[in-house]
Specification:
By secondary structure, this protein is an alpha/beta fold. It contains 8 helices and 12 strands. It has helices spanning about 45-50, 60-70, 105-110, 110-135, 170-180, 200-205, 225-245, 250-255; strands at about 5-10, 10-15, 25, 70-75, 100, 100-105, 140-150, 150, 155, 160-165, 185-190, 215-220. The protein has a single domain, classed as 3-Layer(aba) Sandwich (Aminopeptidase). The strands form 3 sheets. An 8-stranded mixed beta sheet has the order 1-2-4-3-7-12-10-11, sandwiched between helices. A two-stranded antiparallel sheet has the order 5-6. The protein has a two-stranded antiparallel ribbon with strand order 8-9. It is globular, with a radius of gyration of 17 Å. This is N-formylglutamate amidohydrolase. It holds the Pfam family FGase. InterPro entries: N-FG_amidohydro, UCP029730.
Length: about 260
């Protein structure tokens, strides 16, 4: 199926808007773009290209999944250093002054007016667009797609794919059961991050609050560095999702969610 963008502005785009699947895919950290008005946030080119600015490979995987599953995809269009759309406005990480080993000079002295401007310009359009997209889908399930660095603060990570959830474990449980049939990858629940790290904002805001099944995927980015790897990963995870949604308890969960 060819992708079709229904909406695209500086904050968010909706891809494959006419999809028939009940899945709503989300990629909050799809882009590394820093609008010129922020002067690169004071970062050098290496930092602006690094994993602290975006989730390398995540959008490509999410796009391939949207095509494979005939699912709609909502993706952010600016760097998470400008605004992290998986964080509420009050969270320090929404506009971080420090990300891993990188200081972010353009965020260090951000005043209340500056924070409000970014919330209005980026977070609110993303949030509203995602909410409206979910509302148009009958009995939706929400899947957010992320990638993570294999080395964090100098320490290697053995996790290859994380399946994350907050207090609602239904879709995560079903996906972990499907993934258990594949023994070649290290697939772990709530790793390398979990709810304690503040990473489940989108799940809580758009899934948990309405009873929609939801899950967050974290893929180690060295596994999706090429187009072939991205396609292969998308096909594998799409198959896990199909198997998960076919479970009777998931069908009942999606029907029981409130609008």
């Amino acid at each position: 199926m060819s992708e079709r963008t229904e909406l695209s502005n500086e904050a968010v785009e909706v891809i494959n808007a006419g999809a028939k699947s009940p899945l709503v895919l989300v990629c909050e950290h799809a882009a590394r773009e820093i609008p010129a008005c922020y002067d690169g946030l004071g970062l050098d080119a290496a930092a602006r290209e690094s994993h602290v600015a975006w989730d390398p490979g995540a959008l490509a995987v999410a796009r391939a999944m949207a095509s494979d599953l005939d699912a709609v995809l909502v993706a952010g269009r600016v760097s998470r250093l400008v605004y992290d759309c998986n964080r509420p406005p009050e969270a320090p990480g929404a506009m971080p002054a420090q990300s891993e080993i990188f200081a972010i000079p353009g965020n260090a002295s951000l005043d209340e007016a500056g924070r409000t401007e970014r919330v209005t310009r980026y977070y609110e359009p993303f949030r509203a667009t995602l909410a409206a997209t979910i509302k148009r889908v009958n009995a939706p399930a929400i899947v957010t797609v992320h990638s993570f660095t294999p080395i964090y603060h100098g320490k290697p990570r053995s996790v290859e794919i994380g399946i994350l959830h907050d207090s609602d474990t239904r879709l995560a449980d079903a996906m972990l059961a499907a993934a258990s049939e594949f023994t070649g990858l290290n697939v772990v629940r709530n790793a390398p991050y979990g709810p304690q790290d503040g990473v489940t904002h989108t799940l809580k805001e758009h899934g948990l609050a309405h009873g929609h099944p939801h899950v967050m995927l974290e893929i180690r980015n060295d596994l999706i560095s090429t187009e072939a790897e991205q396609q292969q990963m998308a096909e594998m995870i799409s198959n896990w999702l199909r198997a998960a949604l076919e479970r009777p308890e998931m069908s009942d969960a999606m029907k029981d969610a409130k609008p």
